[in-house]
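We were asked to recover a plausible sequence for a given structure. The inputs and outputs are reproduced exactly as logged, with field labels preserved.

PROBLEM: sequence recovery
POSITIONS: 248
GIVEN STRUCTURE:
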């Protein structure tokens, strides 16, 4: 039986319940439209956040670079980047049920075949389902900023998470983060700089458009809701970019 038929239409709980949650708890009923999107497309699009290691060649039915979009929200940038680079496969992850349902509906409508979605905690998914060295890249665009000092332990981009992510990157694979929160931007840069397996060619924040055509999967970061909001508020958006060092 496909796993999604028993799918609870809400994110799977983090089995390591002691772990600090990096996302906001959300309440509210799922609309019929979103419920239908999950049920109709779930079998084709959704990957179980927990279980054994995935073979992305089997998941997508081809051998191609795989990029994670971690905390994809409504999937706005995942879909634009998937359409811009059909030769790259994208796995978009979020705990936000309505966000994932929106992504599924739009992806089906656009006929995209290079996107899969995970409804669940990205940390759990990466730990359990992503093989070491299997990723061409990972994007973390506008992660929840947790601006209050007492909440900053909830930020996703921390040394432990970065170590996990880098372990799953292929040599030369990239990490691309963006935020309009000044203190989180500084934290992202520090986390990347402190990870010995990462190289930051800019030695500082990256330019707005990182387009290194030598690296598979790299396309421009689209302007989405969070960037437009930052522009309205006059907040500068910072990009942080690094690649996994090649073996010596
Ligand atoms: C501010 S939104 C940004 C969405 C999107 N990246 C964009 O730029 O439009 C941050 C998203 O990260 C998700 N998130 C936070 N922690 C997460 C985690 N551990 N696993 C999956 N999603 C997470 C939240 O649910 C939220 O939808």
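RECOVERED SEQUENCE:
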């Amino acid at each position: 039986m496909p796993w999604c038929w028993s799918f609870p239409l809400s994110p799977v709980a983090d089995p390591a319940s002691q772990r600090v949650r990096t996302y906001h708890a959300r309440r509210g009923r799922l609309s019929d439209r979103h419920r239908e999107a999950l049920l109709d497309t779930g079998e084709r699009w959704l990957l179980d956040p927990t279980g054994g290691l995935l073979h992305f060649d089997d998941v997508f039915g081809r051998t191609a670079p795989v990029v994670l979009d971690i905390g994809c929200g409504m999937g706005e940038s995942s879909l634009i980047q998937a359409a811009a680079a059909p030769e790259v496969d994208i796995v978009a992850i979020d705990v936000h049920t309505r966000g994932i349902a929106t992504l599924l509906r739009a992806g089906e409508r656009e006929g995209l075949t290079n996107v899969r979605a995970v409804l669940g905690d990205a940390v759990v998914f990466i730990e359990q389902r992503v093989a070491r060295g299997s990723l061409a890249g990972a994007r973390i665009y506008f992660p929840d900023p947790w601006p209050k000092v007492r909440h900053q332990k909830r930020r996703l981009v921390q040394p432990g998470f970065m170590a996990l992510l880098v372990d799953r990157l292929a040599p030369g694979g990239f990490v691309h983060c963006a935020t309009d929160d000044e203190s989180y931007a500084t934290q992202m840069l520090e986390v990347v700089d402190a990870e010995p397996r990462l190289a930051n060619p800019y030695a500082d924040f990256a330019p707005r458009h990182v387009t290194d055509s030598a690296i598979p999967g790299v396309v421009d970061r689209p302007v989405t809701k969070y960037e437009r909001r930052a522009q309205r508020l006059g907040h500068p958006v910072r990009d942080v970019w690094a690649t996994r060092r090649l073996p010596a």
